[in-house]
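EI: anyone free to look at a 325-residue chain?
SC: sure, send it
EI:
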Amino acid sequence: MKAFITGGTGFIGSHLIDHYLSSEKDIEIFALVRDLNNLKWLKGRNINLLEGDLFSIPSLPSDIDYVFHLAGLTLTSDLADYYTVNQQGTASLFRSLHSQKILPKKIVHLSSLSAAGPSSDCKPVKESSSPHPITPYGKSKLVGEVEALKFKDLYPIVILRATAIFGPRDTDFLNYFKFIKKGVLPTICFHKIIINFCYVKDLVRAIDLSIQRELKSGEIINIANPRAYSWDDLGKAAGKAMGKSLKKLKIPFPSIYIIGIISEIMSIITKKPSLLNRYKIKEMKERCWIADVKKAEEKLSFYPHYSLQDAVQETINWYFQQKWL
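SC: here you go
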């Protein structure tokens, strides 16, 4: 079995590579790497490193069995970059596969629930629901799906829409956990946000299951822990993992808005993306980000192996081992 992976140096891609290297499967991995001097989590791994990017795909083995397109941009100070990477980069990848006459058995394209948009009336979003992304990131992921689906008659393609992903190596949730370490549970005084979380190791299993199952080309499948939680639930799980008694810090929504605007202005000046901006605030105004995962259960036999507490505990332990917390 030969697999080509984009985004291999990233949070999710590196976990997928670890998953396959630790499995009993006979697999040869080819990972697309932009900088061979910055391998991050791939350093020392027994894989084939291919220098390039989505717009300069190097020559691939003609007998690649599976393609995992995990590369994507989740945060930027320049909104146009979302479309450059998530839309145009996806189109470039598929054009390159076609021009190189690569005929994989399956292509897995990783998307996001952001492409579908928030839950109307807090009803879980189905794959068949009309997409209504509300941020540039979500819109770019949706048009990235469109680019992939243009090739569904040429290749067997499955699109996985994952919810909020966390786990070891992730940096997006880190600042939140730093508050918890200080004994503070930050809570927005606006409304309770209900969300599906997805532990990275469960997501990796779903990706693996998607190449094992017979699926109609172009199938879109939501991936998440089926149980919906609030951010307070996540914070309390982290507090328990760290043995912390938490004091709730209520933050007025106008304060969040002001901080977001300042952060965005600084992001433009420094050209460094900020986790908090007007679009993140727009997401926070939505009460529910819940995915219907019945199709994942039916089509993939996917069920999370990790409870929220176990997933958070493993993540927190890793952060401490790496001295990130």
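EI: The chain has a mean pLDDT of 93.
SC: 👍
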